[in-house]
Amino acid sequence: MTKDQLGSLIIASEDSLYHVAKTLLREDADCADAIQEAIVSAFTKLHTLRSDEYAKTWLTRILINECYDILRKQKREVFIEEEDLPEQETAGQDYSELYEALETLPDEMRICVTLFYMEGCSIREIASILEVNENTVKSRLSRAKAKLRRELEPENCPDRDSLQNG
């Protein structure tokens, strides 16, 4: 694969890369950093790509590793307690019920759900990206669906009842 072909792949995969990064990272700035680092890494490690047909899988794996690097760095930082933050910084977060429910999933389940349902990856592709067994991916998807179903049931969502009655 040439650098021009890699550039075209990156442009074509822009939305997909964002969805994968957003699955693991909460902040858009962190997502942008991870994507940028993944792109730089992909260009410098282009010689390690064994087959052009797996280029997107390879790029996604690099991005996931970059996201995990950012998460490791964040764990080492000392965080300011939320009540110490100015009000405007915490008030702007508005997530849909589905994204809130996705946030309750462990990272390994959340990434499987994102790759399968949002990005249309096959079980085999996900297993390759995450470097796990296909049955592991199936189990994670099954557990994630069950947990999401419980999270999104009407009795767990008081706002949904008020919307239906109002």
Provide key terms for this protein.
globular; 166 residues; mainly alpha; 0% strand; 10 helices
Please, what is the average pLDDT?
81
Decide which structural class fits the backbone.
mainly alpha
Shape category = globular
Helix content: over 70%
Radius of gyration: 18 Å
Q: Please provide the count of β strands.
A: 0
Order of helices and strands: HHHHHHHHHH
Query: What does the largest sheet look like?
Result: none
Distance between the termini: 57 Å
User: Which consecutive residue ranges, at least 5 long each, have pLDDT under 50?
Assistant: 80-95, 160-166
How large a portion of the residues is in β-strands, by DSSP E?
under 5%
What's the number of helices?
Answer: 10
Please explain how this structure is put together.
Helices cover 71% and strands 0% of the residues. The protein is mainly alpha-helical and 166 residues long. The longest helix has 22 residues, at 55-76. The chain is globular.
Can I get a quick summary?
The chain is mainly alpha-helical. It contains ten helices and no strands.
Describe the secondary-structure layout.
Blueprint: H1 3-12, H2 14-24, H3 28-44, H4 55-76, H5 87-91, H6 97-103, H7 107-118, H8 123-130, H9 134-151, H10 158-165
Helix pairs in contact: 2-3, 2-4, 2-7, 3-4, 4-8, 7-9, 8-9
